[in-house]
Amino acid sequence: MQDHSNIPVGLCQCGCGQRTTISSYSCIRRNRVKGQPMRYVEHHKPRGPLLTRFLAKIRKSVGENGHWLWTGGTAKGGYGTFYVPERGLIPAHRFAYESFVGPIPDGLWVLHSCDIPPCVNPAHLFLGTHQDNMNDMVKKGRSPRGERAAHAKLTDREVLEIRCRYASGGLTWVKLATQFGVTPRMVAMIVNRICWRHL
């Protein structure tokens, strides 16, 4: 095991001689202590030209218009990430679009026509706004609705039961709301099919 006791505090312990900054957080895995100098400078030394590194992380599926599946690091949702000097980590599909199609105007997103998050095939990418992305998601039925929605308090079965009980008569919105733990307004919206219209 290498002895680091003779290395001055505040200098990178890899031997490069660069000064390290003070850590803003503690992390056992990275051997960091908040308020203390970091042991190492975070070196980002990409090997080879950017496009060569990028293409090395792609697995192309068979066929003329197949997917180019990203095999490198991923972010939330399964979208690929790619390190570009001076820019840091960027979405891999954005890098693919910029490299093979052209620049991305400010305010526009790079959207997938194939709906496969790790796909970086430029033929499957197009530009659009955030609203275009939301509309595309709804149109293709990918938006969570009903009991799959994160904020849902009822199951599909409970919604159908509320409608059935109300149609049978004798129960008010207030009584149904109390039984199912929701507001009377929510029961009214369910009964009148303002929400949960897919059922």
Q: How does this model look, in words?
A:
By secondary structure, this protein is an alpha+beta fold. The chain has three domains: 1-43, no CATH class; 50-139, Homing Intron 3 (I-Ppo) Encoded Endonuclease, Chain A; 147-191, no CATH class. It has helices at residues 50-55, 92-100, 130-139, 156-168, 173-180, 184-191, and strands spanning 58-60, 68-70, 81-84, 88-91, 109-112, 125-128. Strands 1-2 form a two-stranded antiparallel sheet. α5 (173-180) crosses α6. The termini are far apart. The model is unreliable at 1-8 (pLDDT under 50).
- Give the C-level CATH assignment of the largest domain: Alpha Beta
Q: Which overall shape is indicated by the principal axes computed on the Cα atoms?
A: flat
Radius of gyration: 26 Å
In what order do the strands lie side by side in the largest sheet?
1-2
Strand content: 5-15%
CATH topology of the largest domain: Homing Intron 3 (I-Ppo) Encoded Endonuclease, Chain A
What's the number of domains? 3
- Identify low-pLDDT runs: 1-8
Number of helices: 6
Number of strands: 6
Give the SSE layout.
Elements (H helix, E strand, L loop, with lengths): L49 H6 L2 E3 L7 E3 L10 E4 L3 E4 H9 L8 E4 L12 E4 L1 H10 L16 H13 L4 H8 L3 H8 L8
Antiparallel strand pairs: 1-2, 3-4, 5-6
Helix pairs in contact: 5-6
